[in-house]
Each structure stands twice: as structure tokens, then as C-alpha cells.
Amino acid sequence: MKVLIVHYHRFELWHAPAWLRERLQATFPDFQFVQLQSYDRVPEEIVDADVFIGWSLRPEQFVAAKKLRWIHSPAAAVHQLMFPELVRSNVLLTNSSSVHGPVVAEHAIAVMLALAKRLPQAMRYQAKKVWSQEILWNERPRPREVAGATVAVVGMGGIGAEFARLAKALGMRVLAVREDPSKGAAGADAVFGSAQIDEVLPQADYVLLCTPVTPATTRIINAARLKKMKPDAYLMNVARGPLIDEPALIAALKAREIAGAGLDVFEEEPLPADSPFWEMDNVLITPHSAAVTEQLWDRHYHLIVENLNRFLAGKPLLNSVNTKRGY
Questions:
Q1: Residue-wise pLDDT tens digits, 18-34
Q2: Comparing 7 with 177, which gets the higher pLDDT?
Q3: Where along the chain do its domains lie?
Q4: CATH topology agreement for domains 2-98+294-313 and 99-285
Q5: Catalytic residue check, 269
Q6: Which of 115, 140, 202, 243 is the most buried (most CB within 10 A)?
């Protein structure tokens, strides 16, 4: 069986390390593992591959891969693979939500606490050598506790489920929003369907976006929904930029219609130098770093090994994606 690995990115951590192929080959000596350092040879290598490990594949390359039976994405989001040829096929698709979920959830908790305690503002005053105790108290919103506060978690995959667990440990009230509320949400105080988001937003002190990008979730936060949020509520996005109507958010932040935002992802990345977000004192920006961890590829390796063993045994794969739904 041939396994083709192509996961190239300009950011070193997102680039599959050379040792990945070596360890997989040692674990499965009867397989043929081919790891490419660029996309140049994909057209010739994909044609006889049984398994493809990568986050991007062109439709024409997919069509040419007559033996392909399974695609595994080292990313959690797979919207870039939702082209009609794949959706109509019987090729299995898995993602790495279990790899990224715990790490991104930790990051989201850190962002929420930083916003609640007004750490970005304290750091700005620190840079100016200003003792800002009274200033921070007199500014709005004031530093606050998260215990007893309400957080709306939009999306209950690997990130949302772990975030909900951590938020409950902090004493928060957790409202889960997911496409199918009948699936429940372990640890959440209440579960709502996506169509009920307008009922949830006015209740939330914090809103976390961690849902996949689909036609239904694109611009799920727009001008109308921002107006439904409390004026002292914070919006956080650790999923993908297209979930938010960015011009609408910029307008709401400038008008102080909400307290602020913690944003790890944007429509355009890297975030352009002329983006208004950079200059806003009520925005905490992190550079799509929520999933950054030294243990990343070791986690990938163990997930790939587990799923290769399941694939060989004809067992259900972990992190299976429903291509009809897009997540």
C-alpha cells in the first residue's frame, strides 16, 4: 500500500518533518511511504497512492488518483477539500480535530482570561511605564471574574468540547450551539441548535467561535448578530476567519457596541499591516498560533498510526468527516 505525504507550508511547524515518514516506515515496513517537500511531484505520485496525507489536493489530482481510498488532513478544517468530485466519491476523509482540540481550547481559555482581566491594556500601560491600577478600574469594561459568567460555545467538536470542560472547571455557565443539538454536549448547561444562536448571544458574556467553515456558518457573526450581544461581551474566534463579517466587527468595535474581541484567525493571513484591527485597544490579536505546540507532530504521528491500523482492520476511522456536511 502506498501512502503519499504532502504537507508543505511556509511556516516551519505546519510543514511535515522528515522524521514523520521515517517513523511511519519503521512502524509499517510493508508499506511504501512517499513524503514530498513541495507540491511539484504530486500529479505523478498521486496516481497510484492508496492513502493521501495532506491538507490540500486539487480536484484534477483527486480525479487522477484511481486507487485512492482515504485522505487524512493534518488540519482540523477541511473546507478546502470539499470540492464536488470528493463529495460525490466513496473516498474516506479524516481530519486532525483530536490533535488540535486540546491545544486550541487551552489557547481560547487563555484569551478569555486575558480579556476578562484586561491584560492587553495592562501591558500597554506597562510599555508606557504607567501604574494603571486606578485607570483599569475606571475604564469600561472593568476587570472581572469568569466564575459565574456565561460563555456561548459555537461548535462542539474537539475544540468546543474541551473548552466547555475547562470553562465548567472555572465555574462558568456554558451554552453550547451546534448544528444538531440532539447530539448533546457533555458538560454544557444547555444545548441549542444553530438556528437558535440569536437566542443565545444576548445571554453570553463571552462568545467563542470554534465551528467548521460551511455555507451555513460563513459570516455566522454579522452586523445584526453583533447587535444582539451584550455591550460588555467579548467575541473570540479560534476557528477560521470567514466565520465573521470583519467590516461589521470593526464597526462594532469602533462604536463600542461590544467590549472587545480576541482573534486568532482572519479572512486574510498574515493580517495586512493596514488592517484596523492592529490599532484597536479592545482587540487581542494572536497570529493563528492557537494550535502551536512542540508536541504537534508527535500527536499527528500517533493519530496516523492508530488510523492506519484501523484502516487495515476495516474498523471505523477516528475523526471521520461527513463530506456531505463538510465537517
A1: 999 999 999 999 999 99
A2: 177
A3: 2-98+294-313, 99-285
A4: yes
A5: yes
A6: 115
Catalytic residue, candidates 7, 107, 118, 288: 288
Bridge partners for 3 per DSSP: 33, 51
The architecture of the domain spanning 2-98+294-313 is 3-Layer(aba) Sandwich (3.40)
How many beta carbons lie within 10 A of that of residue 152, not counting itself? 25
> How far, in Å, CA of 34 to CA of 137, rounded?
58
Specify the CATH number of the domain 99-285.
3.40.50.720
Q: Give the tens place of pLDDT for each residue, 256-302.
A: 999 999 999 999 999 999 999 999 999 999 999 999 999 999 999 99
- Percent of the chain whose pLDDT exceeds 90: 96
Does pTM top 0.90 for this prediction?
Answer: yes
Of the listed 22, 139, 199, 269, which one is catalytic?
Answer: 269
Instruction: From 204, 194, 197, select the one nearest 236 (Cα to Cα).
Output: 204
pLDDT at residue 9 is higher than 90: no
Residue at 243: amino acid letter? L
Q: Quick one: cell of 215?
A: 455555507
Backbone angles phi, psi at 51, to 5 degrees: -135, 140
What cell was used for 38? 513541495
Q: What are phi and psi of 116, to 5 degrees?
A: -60, -40
**Longest Cα pair distance anywhere in the chain, in angstroms?**
67
Q: What is the C-alpha to C-alpha distance for residues 42 and 53, in angstroms, rounded to an integer?
A: 12
Q: Catalytic: 288? A: yes
To the query of whether residue 240 is one of the catalytic residues in this protein, the response is yes
